[in-house]
Amino acid sequence: MSTPLIELADLWKTYDTGEVAVDALRGIDLVVERGDYLAIMGPSGSGKSTLMHIIGCLDSPTRGSYKLDGTEVSTYSSGKLAELRNRFIGFVFQSFNLLPRASLLRNVELPLLYGGVASVERNRRAMQMLDQVSLADRAKHRPSQLSGGQRQRAAIARALVTEPALLLADEPTGNLDQSTGNEVMDIFDALNGIGQTVILVTHDPNVAAHARRVVRIVDGKVATDQARAA
Amino acid sequence: MNLLEVVSDGFADVRAHAGRTALQTLGVVLGVASVVGTMGLMAGERAQSMKYWSETGGVLKMIVYPQPATVVRGTARQQASRGLTVDDVEAIRARIAGFELVEPSVRRRELVQTPRLAKTYTVSGVAPGYAELHELQIGRGRFITDEDVTTSASVCVLGDDRAREFFGTEDPIGKTIRLGDNSFRVAGVLRYREFYWSKADTYNALGWMNEVIIVPITAMQAREVGAGSRRVDEIGFRLASVEAHKDAAPALKRLLLARHGVEDYRIFDRKDRMEQMEQQGKVYDFTFLACGLISLIVGGIVVANILMASFTERMREVGVRKALGAKGWHIGVQFLVESAIVTGLGGAIGLVLGVGFVHAIAYLLDQVAVLTPTMIVAAMLSAGTVGLVFGFFPAIKAARLDPVVALRYE
After folding, report:
1. Is A82 in Cβ contact with B322 (below 8 Å)?
2. What is the DSSP letter of B212?
3. Is A150 helix (H, G, I), strand (E, B) or coil?
4. What domains, with CATH codes, occur in chain A?
5. What is the pTM of this model?
6. How far apart are CA A163 and CA A159, in angstroms?
7. Of B12, B5, B14, B20, whose CA–CA distance to B326 is shortest?
8. How many Å separate Cα B341 from the centre of its chain?
9. pLDDT tens digits, residue range B294-346?
């Protein structure tokens, strides 16, 4: 059996707020295999955002082990974490987070720029990704000239342009109406269908229903971890 | 990854925020222009007064005038003092080294009669060195010579205005005028001189040179009898060098006080005066510079304001970029490119604008426009300071920003 993509063992995250130390995560154990389609659910304040930040290498745990692709990364410096984010993780945010003053093409190119890909190659790959989300004809447009669904598709294109091992989506349909949301979810389903590991962080059961496995976080711990019938 | 690419991405980002960058640049432009402008005005003012000093005999000139003593009830010796005399001149020449010229002159009001008019004017009796001392320039003919002095020749030299007044368009050389009871032949006419402190100024600071009537000092002294014949109205000095001032000036004061016993004379020392002016100038310099610096700070506040206004947007952008894999230095370089453009462009435009301002003022006031390397250095320094405060520090802060915090920023 190959190494799991993500392996969390007794993961703690403590925020020192001065007088009181708050434990946001209190011993998380979680294994995510390649090709998994996972939804992380939980009420606000449960620690699911903190967990997402750590899985996404935006933050480091206070204690415990995080193995990404078999490598212990919990003690990595911010610079090395930036490299990991660039190589392994594609983010999709609730509010899209496209750079408002840059064209779609430049937005999608950006991770490749930070990954050190040469200009011509960058352009080719970004155009190819935009084409895959049916936005090739909008490459020169700015995000503000697009609908919410189009923006989120552009954001997905940007997340996938580096061919990351993990697609990490934080409330990806939170700012979209139902039918547009469904379109976006269909994209995730299709991606997972061709082997893309996807983690959704959501409190929306309809979104979680797309995943094949649902992890519920309560009070900084994994409360339930259920596989769903496909 | 390639630094060049990050820099070019920085440029693309600046293009995307052209309005923001333009406003920040404007802030720097205003600051730099005001600093350069005030410095230029200060330098121009200085240059103008330096020009005046050098046109009228330079720093090396000292003059002693008689003046009534302020002592009301003095000693017999004090009361016996009769002001400046030829003996003073000889004593100074004999005992004080360091003066290149020691030139006495005598003045008298005389009725001047020419074929055209009869009017009372002040007539000066001088020796040849007088022209050198005051930088009088001969236009036609010649100045008073040593021979004129020895023979107390009845010759005179006229200022340009006087020559015109007495003889109109005729050539005055060789013609005679009557001074009191005697006839004097016109030997020379001085060149017309003028100096205005500014274009708006109607006062010709060198005007007196056009209005003189000069005769040999001996011819003047001969008109007096007894003790009066030894009296002089002014002793002009030229120091041999600036260094000579240190010893010669105090020695002169000591000698005169010893000889007269009372201060019935007044020493006008150009070097002292210049040092005073230099001091005053410094006060003005600081005032002007303070104004310039305040403008610079205002410019800086403009920059800071725009930085603050776009803070939320920037924070989120930094968060997004970091999430996509940007390292600290990527973000830092991006900020630095922006501030380098703002600083460089703002500094250059500000310098040009400031220089233009100085030239405009100089043109309006008919002064010399002075541009010194200091001004360019000052422009670079002020732009650099603004760039450092509003570019470099935000760049470091942004580079160190925690991506989670930046992404959450609302």
Report:
1. yes
2. -
3. helix
4. 6-227 (3.40.50.300)
5. 0.69
6. 8
7. B5
8. 37
9. 888 888 888 788 877 777 788 888 999 999 999 988 988 888 888 888 888 88
Measure the CA–CA gap between A125 and B341, rounded to whole angstroms: 31
The neighbour count for residue B347, using CB atoms within 10 Å, is 26
Question: Are B1 and A56 an interchain contact pair (Cβ–Cβ within 8 Å)?
Answer: no
Selected residues 146-175 of chain A with any CB under 8 Å from a CB in chain B: 158, 162
A101 → chain B, closest CA residue? B16
- How many CA atoms lie within 13 Å of B97's alpha carbon, on the beta-carbon side? 1
Tell me the nearest-neighbour CA distance from B382 into chain A, angstroms.
Answer: 31
Residue B321 to residue A59, Cβ atoms within 8 A: no
Distances (CA, A) of B4 to A150, B33, B232, B298, B321: 32, 31, 81, 33, 18
What ipTM goes with this model?
0.92
Confidence check: pLDDT of A135 > 90: yes
Q: How far A183 CA sits from the closest chain B CA (Å)? A: 24
With an 8 Å Cβ cutoff, are A111 and B324 in contact?
Answer: yes
Q: Does the distance separating the beta carbons of B317 and A99 come in below 8 Å?
A: yes
> Rounded to an integer, what is the distance from CA B157 to the centroid of its chain?
31
Exposed, middle or buried, A141 (CB in 10 Å: 0-12/13-18/19+)?
Answer: middle
Q: Is A3 on the interface with B (CB under 8 A)?
A: no
Chain segment B375-394, per-residue pLDDT in tens: 788 778 888 887 778 778 88
Tell me if B15 sits within 8 A of B350, measured CB to CB.
no
pLDDT tens column, B194-244 = 888 766 677 888 888 999 999 999 888 887 766 567 888 889 988 888 788
User: In whole angstroms, what is the distance from residue B361 CA to residue B367 CA?
Assistant: 8
Q: What pLDDT is stored for residue B141 in this prediction?
A: 92
Tokens of B140: 């036609």
A97/B320 touch (CB, cutoff 8 Å), yes or no = yes
